[in-house]
Specification:
The complex is a heterodimer of chains A (381) and B (98). By secondary structure, chain A is an alpha/beta fold. Chain A has two domains: 170 residues, FAD/NAD(P)-binding domain, CATH 3.50.50.60; 152 residues, 2-Layer Sandwich (D-Amino Acid Oxidase, Chain A, domain 2), CATH 3.30.9. Chain A is built from eleven helices and 19 strands. In chain A, helix 1 runs parallel beside helix 6, helix 1 packs parallel to helix 9 and helix 2 crosses helix 9. In chain B, helix 1 crosses helix 2 and helix 1 crosses helix 3. The interface between A and B is medium-sized, with 32 and 30 residues.
Chain lengths: 381, 98
């Protein structure tokens, strides 16, 4: 088994496999992903599957717009069906404050060229039938947002990366890393030791742990985020619906089930991903408040994953000052799937061709150490 | 053509195709081709999938990584949960017991 590579990526989620693919595509011959379980077994495979371009910060909006542009042709490029579907995103404003914030968001998004509009409750009810229109004042609507199957997108990137010569070592848990002169020595639970001059941290909720192994702080904290799915029913609506006030998002999968999740501000930091009764009760209350007519839908499954949060809810990207050639692609704060297609491409262009990127520079970890010029992303469920 | 997962209409061929892409566990099969994702949550097909993995990968069943079991045990409606929250349980929905 080969253990020496030109680049090693820790984490077999969407960030890890898309980065492997982009590096191989950019001409790097010898790339390997180390994943402790199986592909998408962490946050990627547990997420809601949406992609949106409606953000409150410019950096996130730019990355998301580039990602969607990339996703539009991804099935063709990777030769794999992913259930990519541009059903749109409808974001609900319930309060005056939200109305103001959304108006500012829409103005910024339009300046960047995004096709997004503000609609009244009547129009929102046409886009998403069964919605309790009395609860909303306005909504923002972007028809080019949508959703995708996270397992299939991960597999699509992984298969394509392998075709280009990249390796993916599953069931390979990294337990320690040491850097000597220009080489990272990576120890694993299986007893295999890997060597590489270039290391990527795509470890999602465990990114801080990977940083700790090299004695460098990666300020990412994991929080459990619960989610459930109902049994399949006839087509109800196409978009992802988000309400920050009620605190939920919901979309109907292509297979018919309605997937919904919520954030819980009382969740402590930690990597526990068990399910709770509390969530089922709370989600049920919130969903039926927004969709009173859908209260006969039956829940078939609930689960949880990790939101890997940073202080400003924006990712940590690119190199760090303390250690050369230790590249970060983590801290996506619940939005890795939808930002990965653009981020992985930018990182590959940076590391292989030395091409710099304004967005990547603006999301350097430094901002979080100094907490200077930090603008918090507000559009997070 | 053999249907293995009756809830989601997954065939044996589809499961074997998923194994050829590198899957080795019941959970990976579930995610890639949806076997076990339906209303019965794999009660019927879990064992069959395990047998197919064992046969195709020449691994003893005991060495196949165990699948995750997720709540609720049976499908349950929002109205039933809300009724319980409101303190009464006379809702007509029986949570799928009938």
């Amino acid at each position: 088994m080969k253990t020496r590579f030109d680049a090693i990526i820790i984490g077999g989620g969407i960030l890890g496999v898309s980065t492997a693919y982009e590096l191989a595509k950019a001409g790097m011959k010898n790339v390997c992903v180390l994943e402790k379980h199986y592909l998408a077994s962490g946050s990627t495979g547990r997420c809601g599957g949406g992609f949106r371009q409606q953000w409150s910060t410019e950096a996130n909006t730019r990355l998301a717009m580039d990602s969607v542009a990339r996703l539009e042709s991804i099935e063709e490029e990777l030769g794999y069906k992913t259930e990519f579907f541009q059903g749109g995103y409808l974001i609900l404003a319930h309060t005056e404050e939200e109305e103001k914030q959304f108006a500012a968001n829409v103005e910024m998004q339009r300046r960047l060229g995004l096709n997004v509009e503000i609609v009244d409750p009547e129009e929102a009810g046409k886009i998403v039938p069964f919605l309790n229109k009395d609860l909303i004042r306005k909504a923002t609507w972007c028809p080019k947002d949508g959703h995708i199957n996270p397992f299939l997108l991960t597999q699509a990137y992984a298969n394509a990366a392998r075709r280009l010569g990249a390796e993916i070592h599953l069931w390979t848990n990294v337990t320690g890393i040491m850097k000597k002169s220009n080489t990272f020595f990576i120890m694993t639970e299986n007893g295999d030791n890997y060597e590489t001059p270039l290391l990527f941290n795509c470890a999602g909720g465990y990114s801080r742990t990977i940083g700790d192994m090299l004695n460098v702080e990666i300020p990412v904290d994991p929080y459990r985020h619960e989610i459930l799915v109902t049994e399949p029913v006839e087509r109800l609506w196409d978009p992802m619906v988000i309400s920050f006030s009620v605190g939920l998002y919901a979309r109907q999968e292509m297979s018919g089930g309605v997937v919904m999740g919520m954030g819980d501000p009382n969740e402590p930091v930690g990597t526990y991903v068990g399910s709770s009764m509390h969530f089922m009760y709370e989600m049920s209350k919130r969903f039926t408040k927004l969709f009173p007519k859908l209260d006969k839908l039956r829940i078939v499954r609930q689960w949880a994953g990790l939101y890997e949060m940073t202080a400003d809810a924006q990712p940590i990207l690119g190199p760090i000052d303390q250690i050369d050639s230790f590249i970060q692609a983590c801290g996506f704060s619940g939005h890795g799937l939808m930002l990965a297609p653009a981020v992985s491409q930018l990182l590959a262009e940076m590391t292989v061709h030395g091409k710099s990127s304004e967005v990547i520079d603006s999301l350097n970890v430094k901002r979080l150490y100094e907490l200077k010029d930090v603008v918090k992303e507000k559009s997070v469920v | 053509m053999k249907i293995i997962c009756r809830c989601q209409d997954v065939t044996e061929e589809e499961i074997i195709a998923a194994l050829r892409q590198g899957a080795t566990t019941i959970d990976e099969i579930r995610r890639l081709v949806r076997a076990g994702m339906g209303s019965c949550q794999g009660r019927t097909c879990r064992r069959l999938v395990s047998q197919i993995i064992s046969r195709e990968l020449k691994t003893p069943g005991s060495e196949i990584y165990p699948p995750t079991f997720r709540p609720p045990n049976r499908p349950v409606s929002f109205s039933l949960i809300n009724a319980e929250l409101d303190g009464h349980n006379d809702n007509e929905d029986d949570g799928g017991k009938k």
